[in-house]
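Hi, here's the filled form for the chain we discussed.

Project: internal
Contact: R.S.
Residues: 204
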Amino acid sequence: MMMAMMMVMTISAKAMSYSAAKHEALFLSDKMAYELNLTAAQFDDVYEINLDYLMSVNGYSDAYGKWWNRRNNDLKYVLTAYQYEKYMKLNYFYRPLNWEKGAFTFLVYNHYKNKNHFYKGNPKGYSSYKGGNNKKSDRFYADRNSHKQNGKRGNDKKANGYGSASRNSSAVASGAGRTSSNHHALAQNNNGSRSGGIIRSGHR
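And the returned structure, exactly as it came back:
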């Protein structure tokens, strides 16, 4: 059981490289899209917000300081009230980094152990967005509120193209379902390697 709990992604206490941050932001955002039933537009925004957060964390004090607060404020604009409430209850989304023995771990890997599995393709900004929206106005994503309809925007399965969010928990934990080949190749290239302070552990 202790070994299972340690099966997480570990990063040293320093800024992540862009390539490492975008890969981790993609994995985290993909799982948020699946569990929160995000639309394609929400998925694009959530990826940018997560990338900005990870690229801004330089040490323990940053993990749940101003950049974490900015992440949450931005997500409030992007998510419906229902989605945001659910997000706060899922600690591996709400507080994605944990501090252990001088390094950060990504808690999402405790729940999604197959790091090669993705539910969706790349978000729109995956190849082009370089970060920095969280350094701009604190209302950068405020216009996203105009797309919400009675707090139900993320619940229309026909509109957002996501599968049912009611799959059993074992399927979620095991990462069952469709695997994107380009993500699989990316993960294979990174597997067992150190990039931007990342140490892959327990996923070989």
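Let me know if anything looks off before we file it.
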